[in-house]
Design brief:
The complex is a heterotrimer of chains A (618), B (300) and C (347). By secondary structure, chain B is α/β, with parallel strands linked by helices. Chain B has eleven helices and ten strands. In chain B, strands 3-2-1-4-7-9-10 form a seven-stranded mixed beta sheet, with helices on both faces. In chain B, strands 5-6-8 form a three-stranded antiparallel beta sheet. In chain B, β1, α6 and β2 (150-154) form a beta-alpha-beta unit. Chain B starts with a helix and ends with a helix. In chain C, the strands form two sheets. Chain C has a six-stranded parallel beta sheet. In chain C, strands 5-6-8 form a three-stranded antiparallel beta sheet, covered by helices on one side. In chain C, β2 (182-186), α9 (193-203) and β3 form a beta-alpha-beta unit. Chain C is globular and about 65 Å long. Chain C starts with a helix and ends in a 9-residue tail after the last helix. Classes of the chains: A alpha/beta (618), B alpha/beta (300), C alpha/beta (347). At the A-C interface, α11 and β15 of A face α1 of C.
Chain lengths: 618, 300, 347
């Protein structure tokens, strides 16, 4: 296919190239359990997938391939009824496979099907964005024309949320070449606060920025090659594996990844409960414009009317004259809000009933939910057909799955996940006399991660600074381990020189261990020089002079006390054996900025200078 | 037909249907008169009708709208030319008269549809006394579109019609409060818009309405609040008052008691067009200046 | 590209994506699509045609109910259908009275309303011609406005304008060919379109000054005339214009500076202004333009609004320069141009 692309550079044929997009409509985790076990997710009364499809349609995708694993029927029915229609210029195909447990599996599946020929957009089914992709696509194509090996453009969004607000998933450290936008280093920070970088990225790239203020949008523009790369490497599970793999193999395969950093437009993934909460509010507060409740995706979409304080009401909402909608509220069709109810920062679905004196804050209520009088809801999700009886208080971070009933007159403690119990529960249910709820137990399905991010975790004071030093030594020890082992092997190799092993063979050996330890070439030189210097000095005439010179230019060498102690002796012996000319040493000395080193070799230099003067006098 | 029967007919009409305004009742009477008239020519019939109109005007009611409506009615009769025998003409006239009445009755609903969008959720409205059209607009906004709003009603002396109006509003659960006529300026800063009916809409685009409307208009203008008028098109009258004294005397004073040495109590005042933001009529939403266009089209 | 449906889908997408289309382009596109409806759809009579057009029109409008231009053009086209229908009927036979606009006379004289269900022979070709005429009228409308430039700007005058308006820009360029004058451009935060306007004016060798929005009042004293573009002219003669223009108009009023609006016929809208909150009037843009999302720490604590339009009451507008004669004091004529029916919001 690549060959065909090359031939068809004429503009006519290029226009026929259709823009394809792949939507991975499964999160491959259970962070939204238990609600996702029954239903696909809903955000501001629209199925989540609609936002992603709208985003792709707005960006002119002509063919969308949806890949899903769970709720296939529901997704299929929904997409067919809403998106596959005559007036929609884009064709949508749905694939499903139960065996797929990761993004990698899905892409391998697609690779086998051989339906993607060109550059395509890869997104997750939980993306909400108002970005304009056309300039980025353009840029991607330009770059690919120049650089055949560029396989993917990742799109990252700049954020400025304080570290505390960040989710572990999003804490990414990225080094990027500012000129070519090539990704040089990519790491998820997890718990690590101290990171070592390979030196090479700074040496080979004059203009590098290291960023920790980026959030992955999950949008990437991939070349068709990405699929075959996934196909070839069965260990690629997720995007991170892929990026790491590409970066490690860069020297061998030459494949590169570039990054586009979006500063203005909105893009976010509903990847866990906390992002669900914040994104819902941002959509209602219009940050994702034109993805807002009162702009319809489709002519059959509910038509919300806008009111002051970002309040949106669908048709037929019955508000009691005495209820208070404070701000950032969306209420769906045919819902009813009773006297004295107070609602803020919330979404209420279709056909819901909110009782008198209800206090609802930060609650995300889906369709057909009934909340009786005097309830108090804080930061929770209530899925379809939930009933909350009179006088229930739901504390922060609860999730009530489909058909659950709770109450009356009970408090639900924070962070409770409830689902409907199949067996009949005796009257002593802790969630009220009329409740059918049981606590949802997260189970690890096929070794997947259990929901590791509680919605509202108690705020922990961040005190990394206190034991920072120990962390540093610990981390550098990890990094250092490889170096020490490498160094040991090098020394061993050098010993072998004494046993009349040819220099060529040693070189070969060095190259091979370099590959084994993933060492950068500069690192190798550094370690080699160090090994040589510490090697008994009488052997050194045998080795490459170039490498010695390199060590003189390598200022970092000065930091190694061992080297600097022996430096004067080394230089002296070099001088004596005519390896280094007097001028070379003097010019190095005058250019050297390290005073410590200078002091150490001062005597030698003085002696040399004297000798020079004497010879001049002669 | 003698005078007594005419006024009796008129009173009957008013009594049988309370939602019927004086103007429509009088037209209904006029149709009956055509029916019973023994006139043999169009001119005779016209004379009969004019006499009847005069009689109705004397029955101690709001004269303004009656005179404009009946004038319109006469106009439609004279506009038509007949080639057929007179008896058939009479039939056509009656038919046409009934249609006129039907159309006029529908106009209130049309106005309500037009005016409803201007009443937004949560606003406060000041209205003056009792007006059936205003009531219709407010009812529609409250029931059909389920909007919540507060209405301040002036009690509107001398007949204290405001209390009636408030009762009507309460019946459809519209929050309403009665205020004194003298409190209009005082309440004005609280309200978002002023909505008034009209007895008559004059050629300048101004209106004749229950006494107190003018002061309400001045207060609204001073505080930059919009003043909307709701009026059916049969209230368009061919007069052009330049000041209050230009209003025909029979419009201003009901009977001799209203003006003597001790009292000066006009029941109607003239609100000039510069105080009016828009008029909602069954012809559409008009600016005051568009009114004369309509009248010219009809009478010239 | 193929069918009407596909074109509508693309059109919707373009509008949703933002402000890349000028209202002139939107007007043209709308009429073009409706003209396609005439030729591509099967219809037997005017009623069926109008129904088809209404459906397409609603589809186009649903993307942005506050985008007045589409609605204006759909109404205009529907009006042409009615007229053409009546005209064709008169040619056929004159027993049926054509529909007239709502008026006192009509109200009580007309017996039966025409249902437009009679098939008319030449309607298809006549309609096609009429819409082609409308398109050429649209195409020349800007020229007609611009040609009046020299009558309104005089030598060495100082004129003020707000933000970017293609019609005002062309107007100034035209005037510059004959006389020399100075333009003050208000920058129009948060989009700062005024800066773009100023750059283009300067390229045409017009003396240009840029001021910020808040400086409008202080600079108004030395301004001779204010020229602005508008999104729509509303039924009462007021303007639906870019947010910030009301301030300019008030400042102009304070200093007795005439405010002159350049607007072509497709800007005439039968809408009325009822309240600033009314969702069909105003549109709230992305708060991003006001406050960078990435830069405001925790955005949920701060509410940011970015309204797009302002209502300018008719008494602040001195003159409207259009491609046809308008009398701003008889606003009924404004709405009649578009709206022969009562229910003005749904055509």
């Amino acid at each position: 296919m690549a060959a065909k692309r090359k031939k068809n550079t004429g503009t006519d044929l290029k226009q026929e190239e259709i823009l394809q997009a792949v939507v991975i409509a499964d999160s491959f985790n259970v962070r939204f359990a238990p609600i996702t076990t029954d239903l696909p997710r809903v955000l501001v009364n629209r199925p989540l997938i609609d936002y992603t499809l709208e985003f792709l349609c707005l960006n002119g995708a002509q063919e969308i391939i949806i890949f899903c694993r769970s709720h296939v029927d529901q997704i299929q029915r929904h997409v067919e009824s809403k998106w596959i229609r005559k007036s929609n210029p884009c064709t949508i195909k749905i694939f499903s496979s139960q065996e797929c447990v990761s993004l990698g599996d899905a892409l391998r599946d697609l690779d086998k099907k051989n339906i993607i020929q060109n550059d395509f957009i890869l997104v997750n089914g939980d993306l909400i964005s108002n970005m304009t992709l056309s300039p980025i696509l353009q840029e991607h194509k330009e770059r690919r024309r120049k650089e055949k090996c560029m396989v993917m453009t990742m799109i990252m969004k700049k954020t400025n949320s304080p570290p505390k607000m960040k989710f572990k998933d999003d804490d990414i450290l990225l080094a990027v070449n500012n000129d070519t936008k090539t990704v040089l280093y990519y790491k998820k920070l997890q718990e690590n606060r101290v990171i070592g970088f390979p030196l090479s990225i700074f040496k080979s790239n004059p203009n590098v920025s290291i960023r920790n203020d980026l959030m992955s949008t999950g949008i990437s523009i991939c070349s068709a090659k990405v699929l075959s790369l996934f196909g070839d490497n069965f260990d690629y599970e997720c995007r991170d594996d892929f990026i790491k793999g590409i970066l490690i193999d860069e020297e061998i395969s030459g494949n590169t990844i570039t990054v586009h950093i979006e500063e203005k437009e909105y893009a976010a993934r509903v990847s866990n409960l906390r992002t669900y909460e914040s994104i819902t509010k941002e959509v209602i507060d219009r940050w994702a414009f034109p993805i807002v409740p009162d702009v319809s995706f489709d002519i059959n979409d509910p038509k919300y009317s806008y009111r002051r304080h970002n309040i949106y009401l669908d048709d037929d909402v019955k508000l009691h004259s005495n209820c208070k909608l404070i701000r950032t509220v969306a209420i769906g069709n045919n819902s009813q809000i009773s006297e004295n109810a107070q609602i803020s920062n919330s979404v209420i679905g279709r056909n819901c009933k909110i009782g008198k004196n209800a206090l609802i804050q930060n609650a995300f209520i889906w369709d057909n939910v009934t909340i009786e009088d005097d309830c108090c809801l804080k930061t929770c999700i209530l899925a379809n057909h939930v009933t909350v009886f009179r006088g229930v208080t739901i504390e922060e971070g609860c999730v009530l799955s489909t058909n659950v009933t709770v109450g009356p007159e009970v408090p639900i403690p924070g962070g409770t996940l409830l689902c409907k119990s199949e067996i009949k529960i005796n009257s002593a249910n802790e969630f009220g006399l009329q409740s059918n709820a049981k606590v949802y137990k997260a189970f690890a399905e096929d070794g997947e991660d259990v929901p590791d991010i509680p919605w509202c975790e108690p705020e922990q004071p961040d005190d990394i600074s206190s034991d920072e030093e120990s962390v540093i030594s610990e981390i550098s020890a990890v990094e250092q381990d490889d170096r020490i082992a490498f160094y040991d092997e090098l020394s061993g190799l050098l010993e072998s020189l004494n046993e009349n092993v040819s220099v060529d063979n040693v070189k070969l050996e060095i190259n091979s261990i370099k590959a084994a330890y993933y060492m950068e070439i500069d690192d190798v030189i550094f370690q080699l020089v160090k090994a040589i210097l510490l090697f008994p000095l009488r052997n050194n005439e045998q080795l490459s002079i170039e490498q010695y010179k390199a060590s003189f230019k390598e200022e970092t060498a000065a930091n190694n006390t061992l080297v600097s102690t022996y430096l004067i002796k080394v230089i002296e012996s070099f001088y004596d054996s005519d390896v280094l000319a007097e001028d070379t040493i003097l010019s190095w000395y005058s250019n050297c900025e390290n005073t410590d080193l200078k002091n150490r070799v001062k005597k030698l230099i003085e002696w040399l200078e004297e000798a020079e003067e004497e010879s001049d006098e002669d | 037909m003698d005078r007594a029967t005419i006024s009796k007919l008129y009173r009957n009409e008013l009594a049988t249907d309370s939602s019927l305004s004086e103007a429509l009742a009088s037209i209904s009477v006029l149709i009956k008169i055509i029916n019973q008239s023994k006139a043999g020519t169009l001119v005779e019939l016209r004379n009969d009708l004019t006499e009847a109109i005069d009689e109705i005007k004397n029955t101690d009611t709001m004269v303004t709208s009656i005179s404009s409506a009946s004038e319109l009615f006469l106009r439609f009769i004279t506009l038509t030319t007949f080639e057929n025998p007179f008896e058939e003409c009479k039939k056509t006239l009656i038919e046409r008269g009934k249609m006129f009445l039907e159309e006029a009755k529908k106009s209130r609903e049309k106005i309500a549809i037009l005016g409803e969008p201007f009443i937004t959720d949560g606003i406060k409205i000041l209205i003056h006394g009792k007006s059936r059209v205003v009531l219709e607009v407010l009812k529609r906004a409250a029931t059909e579109s389920r909007k919540h709003f507060t209405v301040y009603v002036t009690q509107s002396l001398p007949d204290k019609a405001g209390h009636d109006m408030r009762d009507e509003l309460q019946k459809v659960n519209i929050q309403s409060v009665v205020v004194l006529d003298a409190a209009v300026a005082c309440i004005m800063e609280k309200v978002d818009l002023v909505l008034v009916g009209a007895e008559g809409v004059v050629e300048s685009g101004g209106i004749l309405n229950k006494i107190g409307t003018y002061s309400m208009g001045i207060a609204a203008k001073e505080m930059n609040k919009p003043l909307y008028v709701v009026a059916e098109s049969f209230k368009f009258a061919r007069i052009f008052p330049l000041n209050q004294d230009d209003i025909p005397h029979q419009f201003r004073f009901r009977n001799s008691k209203d003006v003597d040495d001790c009292y000066y109590n006009p029941i109607v005042d003239y609100t000039p067009p510069n105080l009016i933001t828009l008029l909602f009529t069954d012809l559409g939403v008009l600016t005051p200046s568009a009114v004369s266009d309509e009248l010219i089209k009809l009478y010239l | 590209m193929g069918s009407v449906d596909e074109e509508i889908a693309t059109f919707r997408r373009d509008i949703k994506k933002g402000n890349s289309l000028t209202s002139y382009e939107i007007a043209l596109k709308t009429v073009n699509i409706l003209r396609k409806v005439i030729s591509e759809y099967r219809w037997a009579n005017a009623r069926e045609l109008m129904e088809e057009m209404k459906e397409k029109g609603k589809n186009m409008m649903s993307v942005a109910s506050n985008q007045s231009t589409i609605g204006n053009m759909v109404r205009k086209v529907l009006k042409i259908v009615r007229e053409e229908h009546a005209r064709c009927l008169e040619e056929d036979d004159n027993t049926i009275e054509p529909v007239r606009e709502e008026s006192l006379t009509k109200l009580y004289l007309l017996k039966s309303e025409d249902t437009f269900s009679r098939p008319v022979e030449n309607l298809r070709t006549n309609m096609y011609e009429a819409l082609t005429d409308l398109i050429s009228e649209l195409e020349t409308s800007r020229e007609d406005i611009i040609n009046q430039a020299a009558e309104h700007i005089h030598s060495n005058e100082v004129v003020l304008t707000f933000g970017y308006s293609s019609i005002v820009l062309a107007f100034f360029k035209k005037a510059r060919k004959q006389i020399e004058f100075q333009v003050i451009v208000v920058e129009d935060a948060p989009k700062f379109n005024g800066q773009k306007m100023a750059a283009e004016l300067a390229q045409s060798k017009i003396k240009t000054t840029v001021i910020n929005d808040s400086a409008a009042f202080s600079i108004m004293a030395r301004v001779n005339k204010v020229f602005i573009g508008t999104h729509a002219i509303m039924a009462d003669g007021g303007l639906k214009a870019k947010c910030g223009i009301h301030n300019i108009a008030l400042a102009a009023k304070r200093h007795s500076v005439p405010v002159i609006v350049c607007a072509a016929l497709y800007k005439l809208s039968p809408e009325f202004f009822t309240s600033h909150d009314q969702s069909s009037f105003n549109k709230l843009g992305c708060p991003q333009e006001v406050l960078n999302f990435a830069e405001c720490g925790i955005p949920s604590d701060v509410q940011v609004y970015n309204p797009i339009y302002d209502y300018v009451p008719p008494d602040l507008v001195t003159l409207i320069i259009s491609n046809m004669l308008l009398d701003k004091f008889k606003s009924k004529t404004f709405s009649e141009e578009e709206m022969p029916q009562h229910t003005y919001i749904d055509f």
